[in-house]
Backbone:
């Protein structure tokens, strides 16, 4: 009975030799299996552990700049007058642009947006900006800066202060007569635009004086008149034939004579301004360099406005020549006429030359006109500018 009570607990006191041997065999087997299981589990843990070693350093990225080849030159541009009074321009890609005639765009009614920070500080207005110049065989020529700024933006004079009646007056021929140039720079109000003749003298000195006094500047380039070469504006005349062939050596010579100007004005050039085939590449060259073109308005056969609008070139045209008669009385009458034009349409542009009577008459009229609510503004403020922002 006592033996039966102990059997369930494995406390059997009477163990045979065979039973003892069997238990030892079972113990060894269980011990071996336990060891194998432990070893297998350890091995699995090692194999399944994540790899904490630092990843290999990535290969350096190669930075390749995409450089586009310059566009191939297009075929010749065809420019012809259109039946509606404008011009039709077909370029080398077959794209046709049509202007709508002289009345489609009223220069003088479209204001160039004030460039804000793009405009030079008055303290540095007499200093050319290197970013707006490129070297050439003819000296430093104006060019758009790499960031898109144009000489037209940077060298522009102070804009209109209000939206009232505005008049731009351009006095040309500066640099030819030293006394006349000095009087124009010193006696004319800052709003008057000064145009320097490319054939003038001491142009850099006069440029700096004019810019310090707040004037906006233009360059007068000799251009082919009717009757050329018997009638000539002088050496380095930009001819119709040279412009049609894409030769702008004469223009570049003139451009290299001065800096800090916003555009080019014709000196003579009635024949040139009447030929669309010469004007289209010529105005394209000015636009490419970030300049405007001012037609002095002396030729009734000029098509410069149409070609400028069709080609998206900043442009202005004079309404009146102020001193064809150089007497003080005649100039005063012309200035009164200019004021009436401005009051009728909001703006007006007049051109004149740097004669003593002209300078004195304009200076006197300007003071009186301001008291009557007329604001004298630089030419850029009244130019058609297809690139104006805002």
Residues:
């Amino acid at each position: 009975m006592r033996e039966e009570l102990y059997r369930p607990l494995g406390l059997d006191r009477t163990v045979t030799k065979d039973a003892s041997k069997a238990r030892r065999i079972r113990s060894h087997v269980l011990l071996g299996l336990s060891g194998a299981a432990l070893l297998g589990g350890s091995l699995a843990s090692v194999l399944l552990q994540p790899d904490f070693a630092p990843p290999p350093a990535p290969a350096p990225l190669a930075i390749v700049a995409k450089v586009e080849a310059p566009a191939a030159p297009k075929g010749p541009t065809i420019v012809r007058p259109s039946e509606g009074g404008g011009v039709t321009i077909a370029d080398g890609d077959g794209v046709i642009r049509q202007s709508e005639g002289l009345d489609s765009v009223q220069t003088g009614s479209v204001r160039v947006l004030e460039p804000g920070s793009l405009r030079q500080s008055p303290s540095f207005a007499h200093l050319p900006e290197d970013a707006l110049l490129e070297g050439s065989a003819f000296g430093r020529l104006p060019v758009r800066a790499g960031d898109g700024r144009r000489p037209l933006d940077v060298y522009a004079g102070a804009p209109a202060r209000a939206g009232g009646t505005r008049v731009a007056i351009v006095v040309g021929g500066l640099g030819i007569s030293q006394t006349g140039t000095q009087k124009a720079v010193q006696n004319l109000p800052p709003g008057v635009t000064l145009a320097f003749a490319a054939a003038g003298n001491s142009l850099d000195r006069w440029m700096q004086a004019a810019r310090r006094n707040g004037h906006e500047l233009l360059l007068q380039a000799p251009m082919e008149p009717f009757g050329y070469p018997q009638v000539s504006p002088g050496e380095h005349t930009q001819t119709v034939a040279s412009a049609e062939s894409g030769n702008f050596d004469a223009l570049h010579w003139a451009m290299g004579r001065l800096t800090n100007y916003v555009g080019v004005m014709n000196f003579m050039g009635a024949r040139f301004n009447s030929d669309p085939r010469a004007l289209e590449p010529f105005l394209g060259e000015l636009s490419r360099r970030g300049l405007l073109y001012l037609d002095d308005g002396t030729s009734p056969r000029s098509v410069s406005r149409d070609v400028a609008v069709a080609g998206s070139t900043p442009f202005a045209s004079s309404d009146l020549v102020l001193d064809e008669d150089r007497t003080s009385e005649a100039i005063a009458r012309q200035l009164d006429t200019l004021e009436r034009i401005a009051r009728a349409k909001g703006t007006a542009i007049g051109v004149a030359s740097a004669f003593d009577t002209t300078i004195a008459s304009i200076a006197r009229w300007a003071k009186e006109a301001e008291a009557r609510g007329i604001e004298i503004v630089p030419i850029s403020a009244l130019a058609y500018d297809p690139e104006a922002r805002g």
